[in-house]
From TrEMBL:
Keyword field contains Metal-binding: yes
Cofactor(s) needed: Mg(2+)
Gene expressing this chain: engB
Keywords: Cell cycle, Cell division, GTP-binding, Magnesium, Metal-binding, Nucleotide-binding, Septation
BP GO annotations: division septum assembly
Originating organism: Gehongia tenuis
GO molecular function list: GTP binding; metal ion binding
Full protein name: Probable GTP-binding protein EngB
Length: 198
């Protein structure tokens, strides 16, 4: 598949505001600064669709993007940012839980992690949560251009083991700088959308 159109639809600040069921959703989650906005922009080939920033923790809303007029890519607030208050962290938790438990249309999650690093405790918590809720997922290993091409398979293997995933197909190395991995993510999206009855 190709992404022919992508537009921002709306943002939500609290779970009760989530829209009525309408279209299938694929969520995008990850630690703050992992490259979530760059992933969304890279996939949709729109430079400014999701705001990218150098300053961690800017994405604190649930943002809905409509792709191909057919499904939503749902940008979840980044986690693991250190410089926020306890109240803010609690609000984040409520948002996340509200979305993940409440969304009847969620079909898959792209869980973003930096290819260069071991998963953080927050990454592991997120993964545990996704597993408990039985949400199908793919781990996207971002910033793949930052490791030598020859080392990418090694990092994929290492993270597969650290995350206790059953196979390499559960992880897709990706670079928003070079477009590496984009085709595989598109193929995964197509699989998800075509296998989901709606
Ligand atoms: N080299 C390289 N840099 C990247 C890549 N993806 C993101 N970055 C850089 O990493 C930084 C963070 O990227 P963002 O896309 O803003 O990250 P985010 O996860 O949306 O961050 P928050 O808004 O804090 O949640 C920026 O400086 C990006 O330019 C990538 O694939 N390769």
């Amino acid at each position: 598949m190709e992404i022919k159109s992508a537009s921002f639809v709306t943002s939500y600040a609290k779970p009760g505001d989530f829209p009525a069921p309408a279209l299938m959703e694929i969520a995008v989650a990850g630690k703050s600064n992992v490259g979530k906005s760059s992933f969304i922009n890279g996939m949709t080939r729109q430079k400014k669709l999701a705001k990218t920033s150098q300053k961690p923790g800017k994405t604190r809303l649930v943002n809905y993007f409509l792709l191909n007029g057919a499904f939503y890519l749902v940008d979840l607030p980044g986690y693991g940012f250190a410089q926020v208050s306890k109240a803010e962290k609690e609000r984040w938790g409520e948002m996340m839980e509200g979305y993940l438990k409440g969304s009847e249309n969620l079909r898959h999650m792209f869980l973003l992690m930096d290819i260069r690093h071991s998963p953080t405790r927050d990454d592991e918590t997120m993964l545990r949560y996704v597993r408990i809720l039985n949400i199908p997922f793919t781990v996207i290993l971002t910033k793949a251009d930052k490791v030598a091409k020859s080392k990418v398979p090694m990092r994929v293997n290492a993270l597969m083991k650290e995350l206790v995933l059953p196979g390499r197909e559960w992880l897709i190395p990706f670079s928003s700088e070079t477009g590496f991995g984009r085709d595989r993510v598109l193929a995964r999206m197509e699989e998800v959308l075509s296998s989901s009855s709606f």
